[in-house]
Amino acid sequence: MVRVKQAVALLLMCFFVGVITVSSTPAFAKEYGDIIMDKSLVSMNKAGVKPVKFSHWFHRIRYKCKVCHEDIFVMKAGANGVNMNQIMEGKACGTCHNGKIAWEPMFCDKCHSSDEQPAEKAQAPQDGQGKKL
Question: Cβ atoms within 10 A of the Cβ of 50, count?
Fold first, then answer.
């Protein structure tokens, strides 16, 4: 009976340490590798969908880099202009998200799931007359 109590106490302690660790971890550490794809924000707003949250590491733990890079996507941030027409034609994300390899692009909220606001674009420094330095 003593061993059972010790085991339960140990399990509870591990559980609470895990909860405290996760809840005190900064948000960026939980979401490391997520890419918010918001280049087409105007058309997404018009369609009533959120920006796409692409979980790079969710994909990376399942596939090697070469599965997507360079045949499907250029390995440079912002270099891939992905849109729904391409995806529906089986290009870009639609290469795999075709209903056979991964879910088909009919479930909008699976990809269009970001609640994050797009980052402000950095402005070039200007002189006192509004000219870029």
Answer: 18
φ, ψ at 86 (rounded to 5°): -60, -45
Residue with tokens 């399942």: 62
Provide the residue range defining the domain that includes 98. 31-111
**In this structure, what are the phi and psi dihedrals at residue 71, rounded to the nearest 5 degrees?**
-70, -35
69 and 4 fall within a common domain: no
The amino acid sitting at 100 is: K
Q: Within a domain: residue 116?
A: no
Claim to verify: residue 4 and residue 54 sit in the same structural domain: no
Query: pLDDT 10s digit of each residue in the chain, 133 long?
Result: 667 666 556 665 655 445 443 333 334 334 567 888 888 888 898 999 999 999 988 898 999 999 999 889 998 888 888 999 999 999 999 999 999 999 999 999 999 999 886 654 444 556 666 665 5
Q: Is this model's pTM higher than 0.90 or not?
A: no
Would you state the structure tokens that stand for residue 90, as one six-digit string?
């089986």
